[in-house]
Amino acid sequence: xxxxxxxxxxxxxxxxxxxxxxxxxxxxxxxxxxxxxxxxxxxxxxxxxxxxxxxxxxxxxxxxxxxxxxxxxxxxxxxxxxxxxxxxxxxxxxxxxxxxxxxxxxxxxxxxxxxxxxxxxxxxxxxxxxxxxxxxxxxxxxxxxxxxxxxxxxxxxxxxxxxxxxxxxxxxxxxxxxxxxxxxxxxxxxxxxxxxxxxxxxxxxxxxxxxxxxxxxxxxxxxxxxxxxxxxxxxxxxxxxxxxxxxxxxxxxxxxxxxxxxxxxxxxxxxxxxxxxxxxxxxxxxxxxxxxxxxxxxxxxxxxxxxxxxxxxxxxxxxxxxxxxxxxxxxxxxxxxxxxxxxxxxxxxxxxxxxxxxxxxxxxxxxxxxxxxxxxxxx
Length: 379
Ligand SMILES: Cc1cc2nc3c(=O)[nH]c(=O)nc-3n(C[C@H](O)[C@H](O)[C@H](O)COP(=O)(O)OP(=O)(O)OC[C@H]3O[C@@H](n4cnc5c(N)ncnc54)[C@H](O)[C@@H]3O)c2cc1C
Fold this sequence. Notes:
The protein is an alpha/beta fold. The chain has two domains: 1-44 and 145-210 and 311-379, FAD/NAD(P)-binding domain, CATH 3.50.50.60; 84-141 and 211-307, D-Amino Acid Oxidase, subunit A, domain 2 (D-Amino Acid Oxidase, Chain A, domain 2, 2-Layer Sandwich). 26% of the residues lie in helices and 25% in strands. The chain has an eight-stranded mixed beta sheet. Strands 9-2-1-10-17-16 form a six-stranded mixed beta sheet, covered by helices on one side. A three-stranded antiparallel beta sheet has the order 3-8-4. Bound molecules: flavin-adenine dinucleotide. Flavin-adenine dinucleotide (FAD) is lined by residues 6-12, 29-32, 36, 39-41, 46-47, 167-168, 170, 193-197, 215, 217, 306-308, 331, 333, 335-339.
């Protein structure tokens, strides 16, 4: 089949690579560049971790995806995955970790339930104030984000895929007309993988199903080198207690990364400046002092503003356009799709080839107009 994919973020990129591998002829269109600065797949790094509440499917997908990330690493000869471990910290509510712990054990994903005392001894960098339970995933860690997208593009082109730098105009009002071609050539099938831009491109269909939230990410520097905050001494981490922050320790390439995962304000993709806000800077510094009291004199060395494309239940959209079975919509990454790019690409390949049905978890008709937006952490 001749397939056109619009958007070379992690979802479009992996779908293109997997569809090509399955024997299709694939054209990949991207307005800017894979992993460009305003895309949701841009920036330096992304966490890859196993705990996913009661969502067994995501945990299976993480396992498969990690294998795939490592497989392309060996093809490329570049490191994309850094197994620095991942520490989970829970407050009173521990169910998200407890259920996943049992499932991850079942599928042989390395995970330990460690006592607070042991956590304190192993990772004295963290203050465990307000923490009631910790889980540790020794083989999890982080992936290179922008670099990952760029290198998969390289593999895709080497394997015979066609990459075209072009912004494709999508006229939503003509989609009901089966003769309307989004791409001006004889594609049999189109995959719309436009990330946060899906909301405005498909305003009638998705306008009220997606919320594009503004996310600030900070990199801190130390006033003097201190190896205890490096990846060699401490893991990546997620704090799911009262406040929901996550981070990655010092790496060779950047500072001590920290971000607030809450999704409170919206961003205008075209109109807004991407500068951190004083209120959030104070909040992150306050959190830094609270959770890492021995991190002396923290100063922000860099900040980024990115966006999540949130759905109401934190699950993705991977479904056919209601009027067009030759158009697949993939998006709604909800702040957690990067790691799962390979599984999304495989699922897309099965759907396009008729080897799988739309999963109700990702379907368009699961949405109810009265639903409120919530993250995959359901908080
Ligand atoms: C700050 C931040 C931290 C995150 N942390 C994690 C994490 O730790 N772990 C994790 O797994 N996930 C994480 N995520 C989520 C993950 O990165 C996203 O869910 C994922 O990257 C979304 O990818 P995408 O391909 O849907 O969108 P995008 O990466 O935005 O790609 C869409 C692409 O489509 C292109 N496009 C749009 N319209 C057109 C058009 N008309 N013509 C041509 N091209 C077009 C755009 O230019 C863009 O490049 C994070 C996201 C952010 C922002």
